[in-house]
Structure formats: C-alpha cells, structure tokens
Prior knowledge:
The complex is a heterodimer of chains A (about 325) and B (about 525). Chain A has about 325 residues and is an alpha+beta fold. Helix content of chain A is about 30%, strand content about 30%. The longest helix of chain A has 30 residues, at about 145-175. Chain B has about 525 residues and is of the alpha/beta class. Chain B is about 30% helix and about 25% strand. Chain B is built from 18 helices and 20 strands. Chain B has helices at about 60-65, 110-115, 145, 165-180, 210-215, 250-255, 260, 270-285, 295-305, 320-330, 335, 370-390, 405-410, 420-435, 450-455, 465-470, 480-485, 515-535, and strands at about 5-10, 20-25, 35-40, 45-55, 85-95, 100-105, 120-130, 135-140, 150-155, 185-190, 225-230, 245-250, 315, 320, 360-365, 400-405, 435-445, 455-460, 495-500, 505-510. The longest helix of chain B is centred in the C-terminal third of the chain and has 21 residues, at about 370-390. The chains are: A alpha+beta (about 325), B alpha/beta (about 525). The interface of A and B includes residues 278, 280 and 293 of A.
Amino acid sequence: MEWLRLVEEFGKLAEDRLSRGEYYELEGVETPSMTPHPRMQVRLLEIPGIYRVAERYSANTELRYFMDGVQRTVLWRYYDYHSARIPVFLHLSGAVVLERVKPGVFLPVDQGYRSALLVPEFLHEELQGIDGVVSTGEAEPWNIAEAVALAKVKSRALRQALELEVMHRFLERHDALLVKDGNIIDTGSARVVGVVKSHSRLYLQQVSPTLQRLVWNMPLYHRSSAFSLRLSDGSRVESFYLRIHEPLAPETGLIRVEHRLSEFEELASWLIAESRVYSRGERWHSMLYPIQRCEAYLRTQLPGRRRLRALLEAVA
Amino acid sequence: MSAIGYAIGTRSSPNTANEFYFWTPPEEGSLQIGSIVKVESPENSAIGVVEEMKSYADVDDFLTHALPRANDPLLIPANREQSILVCKTRVLKQRRERPITEGVVRYPTREELEEVFSVEGCNLPFGVFVNSDSTMLPVRVHEEYVLGYEGAHVNISGMSGLATKTSTFLFLLASIFTHAESRVACVIFNNKSDDLLHIDQPSRELTQEDLLIYEACGISPSGFEARFFAPSNFYGRPQSLRQSAEVFRWGWEEVVEYLPGLLKAATQDQKEKLDSAFYELRRMAAQRGISSLAEVLEFMRQELLLEQKAPSELIHGTYKATWGKLYNQLRALETKYDGLITGFAEEVVDLPFDSIKDREVWVIDIQQLGFYPRKLVFERVIDEFLSRLERRSLKVEKLIIFMDELNKYAPSSAGPEVASLKEKLVEIAARGRSIGISLFGAEQFRSKIDQNILGNISTDIYGKTKDAELAEPLYKNLPEQVKGRIRRFSRGEKLLDHELFEAPVFIRVPRPPCMLGSELSRLRAMQKGIASAGQV
Lengths: 316, 536
C-alpha cells in the first residue's frame, strides 16, 4: 500500500500542522466545473440521418479486451497554512484491461494503480521534497472551494493519465481492439474504441439540430450519421451515436462511440452484441457489461470506503 | 496437486475453527457434496468435507437475467453474468485449532487422506471413500467401538431394494470376519423369503467396481462359513425354503420362561390373573419334576380342572375358570406355533448354542413363523447367547446379532406385544458392549427405533432415505445438502457416521460377497430361459 506509506511520511513531516476533518469523498461532492470546454470542431461524415445496424440481436462480436479506470479522492487532513486550513486530499486510482477469455470469464491482462496527496500549488511549493505530493494548480489560500474543485479535476486527470499509461502498455503487447470506457480523443491510437455513456455535450446540435433530435428518438439497433470531432491541437476522432437498448427514455440505451477505424459498421454490430447481458445499477442501459466487470475488478483492488477511512484514521 | 479453489472468510460467511468457506470457479467440475479438500495457509492447514455448495451469478433477480435474453432460453448472448461456486466445508483435521484465514484449496494427496481416515485403532473397513479426484481408499472403523468393549452396535437404515441394508450388512460382516482381531461369530434371523439362505455360496454378480472395493478393503469376497437352522414342522422337517437346514424344536423347559409374554387376555386384570396362575403352575410343575408340556397339561387335567369343582371355586389359590383359560392357551401352543413347540421332552431339539465357532454365521430361518413364534425365537436365542457370553462359555468372545426390521421389534412407541423383546434389545444396546454382544439393526425408518437403542449405537450407516424420514428431528445435525445427497443416493452409496469420526463420510459399499436369495432367483430364471430357448 504505497498510499499508506505516503500519508504516514507526510504525517511525520507535518504533524503539528495537520488537523482532522470529516471524512468525505470528492467524487460525491458537487463542485463547479473547472474543466474548460474544449473547442471541438464537429463535422458530419455522412448524409444526416439514422441508419439501421441490425434487425435483431446477434451475439457475434470480435471484441475481447475492455478497459476502465476508477479514482477515489478523499479528504485526509487540513493543513495549517498561515492560519488558513487547506484541505489535503488523498488520490487513489486504478486502471485495468480485462480480457474476456470466454463468456462470463474475464481475466486482467494489464493494470496500474496510483496514489498521490493533492495540494494547491502554494502548498506544494512549501512541501517540496515530499514524494507523492502533487500540485492541483494555482489557487488562493482563502479560496477553499476553488482548492476543492481543483483537487477534483486533478484527481480525474491523474486517473486519465494512468489509463493512458496502462492502455499504451497494453497496445504495445497486444494487436487487438480495446474498448475503453469514455472518450479516446487524447489516445492517438487506431486500436482503441471509446464508449461514452453520458451526453451532456450535444455535438450534433452545432451542425444539425434536426439530426440531434433524431438521435434522441433513434430506435433500437440504429446509429446516427458518423461525424468527426477535432480539437484545436489537431487531434481527431470519428464518432456516432448507437442505440443498444429500447428507448424507454431519450437517453436509455444511447451510447456515443469514438473510434479511428476506417470501417465501423461491424464495430456497431459488435457493440450491440455486447449490450447483453445487462449491467447492474442505474446505468445498466448504457454501460457495457464487460466495462462493469472492469469497474468491479478495480473495486476489489482499491481499499473499500470503510477500510480506507479506518486506515486513514489510524495514521497519526 | 492443482488448485481447485480459494478459502476465505467473509463478513457474511466467516471461517471458524470448525468450518471454512472457499470459492471455486464454475468450470471446476469435480467437486461435489462430500468431497474432501485441503486448504493451506501460512498459519494453519485443514482438511475438510464439503457440506454445502452454492452457486452465485452476478445477477440481481431472474427478470434481469431473462430480459437481456428476450425470454428466450436458447439465446446465447456474447456475455454471460460472472458466476461462482461457494463451498462450505466442515473441518475434519487441522494443524492448529483456529480458523483458516485464507489459502489455496486443493485435493489432499492419498497419504493426506489416509491420515484423515486413520483414526488410531480403526481396523475394520466399512466401505471406501472415493474423492472427487478419483482417489479411493478404505474407511475404517474401530473394532472396539463396533463389537465392544468401548462401544458397540451398528445401525443401517434406508429404503428397501437398493442394497441398503442386508447387502451392506453382509459386506460389513465379511470385513469384520476378515479384519477383526477378536473371535467373533454372527447370528442372523432370516425373515424374508430365502434371502439369507444361500450366504454360504459366493456371489456371482460382483462387478469390476465391486471387486475394486473389496480389493481396496483387503477382503476376498466369498460365501460365509454358515449353519442354517429352522424350526421343525409337525413332520420333523425344517420350516424353511432351505430343506437342508438343521431343525430345532422346543419343549416346556425351553420356553417356560417366555410363556408369560405369550399368554393373551382381554383385560389387564385377566392378564394378571393368568400370569399369577402360570407362575403357580410353573412352581408346582417344578416341584413335581415335570419337564414336558404334555405332562403339564396332564397334571392340569388331573389336579386343577377337577370336574366336581365349579368354575368359581378356588383350586390351589386360583379360580378353576382361570386354570381353564391357562390350560386352553397352553394346549394350543403346539398347533399355534407350527411345530416349534412340542409337548414331548424326547422330541426337543435345541439349537447347539455352545458350538458356535469363530467366523461362523448362524442363519435362523423364521420367515415361515408368525409374529409371536418369531418373537419367542428372538428372545430365547438372544437370552441363551447373552448368558453364555456373560459366563464366557462360548468359543467366541464377540457375537453379532443382525435384526432386520428393527423398528418392528424395538419401536419408539411399543405396544405390550413386543414389550419383552424390546426390553431385551434395549438391554443389549445398553450392556452389550461390555459383554461382547453387538446388535446390527436394519430398518427403513431410523426415527421409529427406540431412543434407548439409538443412543447406544456407535456406528450409523444411512442409505437412500425418503424426505419425510429426513425431516425427523433425529436428522437435524445433518446439513440440508447432505440430506439432499442422501435422498438422491444411488446403489452402493452410503453415509457412514462412526463414533470416532469428526464428521460423517460418504462411502461406497459393494454388492455382498455371498449369494442372496434374489440373486439365486435371477440365476434360476436365466437358466430356465436358456433351457427353454434350447428346446425351441
């Protein structure tokens, strides 16, 4: 447990300046979004419309490898910085690639874990020399809310970086498609497919509001026209929406797929194959079962909430 | 040995010093209820028997499973919910008396299994244990706990027709005769057709599997050295399907002690009067040196049933009417007991109790007798051997008495008709171990046996048993899934529970080493079939 050594070391060095706070996890806290909305260029690649991918369910799929990452950011202590109490967060993250060796049996083929103590830049400067302390960015000592929001963003960034590290390691060793939870625009690989479950950004609204409406009403096993997304830094990815479950509500069973494949019709049908069986929980309709297995696997590797809390309490 | 699972205690299923849990991947196809496994952890190691298996899948309810399959059982999706098997294991042996924390589970090696079953002093193989990895080894019980003097008695229960009882008993007997250190003989009562009348001949129906079990147990299957006895009929021939059986016929002296139990009366008051009249008669007969039933009846006619006396008049302290009733019942003994009882002392042929030899089986054929004559035979044979064993006047130190349908003669709720026999069986159960007499009982319903007998049994063997019987409180210590397996037992499968074992063990027993009546019938039918085919 690298992270435990980290907090112990920190605790020893700064014991007289640390005070306890009520345990909470940042992932469960609403914070103002600190992520700048990327300037994304959207371009349609097909005639606007929706297209049928399959008549009925077929179990045929060539997908074997699946990836996801999780993070946990918990308040560890408050640091006395010239009488200001600055929250110090513990970041834990993990990423895994699972291989489906046969239906119902998933085995990890690559994985990685990271831990860090997250502090604002001004504190980071003061604590130079302590391994594992990471700056969350510039913030004012009096702006606690900003410090919290920055920690959340940094935690997510650390997890994404870990995912990229594990992903590249996998791609170096395997010559197969990898289905990753979330977007892949920053991955740069043609062998990675991203499956995005949430639709807070309406990409098609910019180029074709009609098509966006059609997507919301898209029937089962249909996809939208393909479109491309391009960032200002030149990175580019192709995308389409796909309905993998009956649209009981506009978002039910709607996923957005990101890829860099020249042919994506087969990929769409494989993802439909992956729609059975259902994941558990509220996101059952948009989370592929193998991705949920990745999450479940990582939950077994990272300390549970009760254990984490108990261990943090135990550290002086 | 390859790993078959991993032991771990969870919050909902913690390991204890008596049991541990382990998971096993669903594709591991060999484990089953009754398998014996070994877990190794740095601080402890344990060997246990699987008592419960549960299968879990990553699915909340049946709807969630059916929905993605569109209610079509044949639809096979690309994914399948992850599933797992969890086994609960009862500890048989462990290095230290503490719970297992976690560790890899494997099948124990043959040597390790032998260590589990090698309870010190156990020398009688009562079947073989076949582990799920096909390791087969004999399961031995302790002679001193089967035949006395530490403990005694064996009970075999289970449904009829699945080689559950008689066949199992004969195998056990062969094992005892092969391996016991003490001089031991056996008395069997045949009360079913010619079932036990050919046990001096070897079985011809043993399969390869049976022979393997015999070999593993170090027993050479063969017929027993046996003597067959049957009560005589009126013509001095044996009342038996085995015409070569030695006959026995008892007179007044042999049965006088048992007659009160055979006298019948309408009311308790009448029974008491009849009993006191009988004891008076017995005293008078003894005084006069009367030794046969015919002489007793003659004496009664001459002295107790005087014509000039009225029925209400007292003769030797008893009403003449009571003497009359007693006379009638005694006079009927000869006819009612089908030749088992004779009026004349010179016709008496007793069983040669003193001649029973080491490793000899006596089969007493009582299947043609009615209930009361059978009871008389049981009681007297038991008594005669009991007294001889107590006096140490036999050529054997230990005697096995096999009683089929034990629940009939020692039921949990006994009527007056079996009271005296049941009392005798209870006495054997309680005192038998110190004398060297061991009761091997068999029955369909163990729960119907008297508690005083069950409480003294050191070894129980369960065969296929019905649900209703397994629901009885007597079986409450058996885990539900063990009961489930007992319900589904196939031929030869048994559960053995011995006083020195930590937990009951599933065993296999072979067909009997000797010929049963049913086997002979099959042989004859086959020969007849061949003969008639030849004629055609």
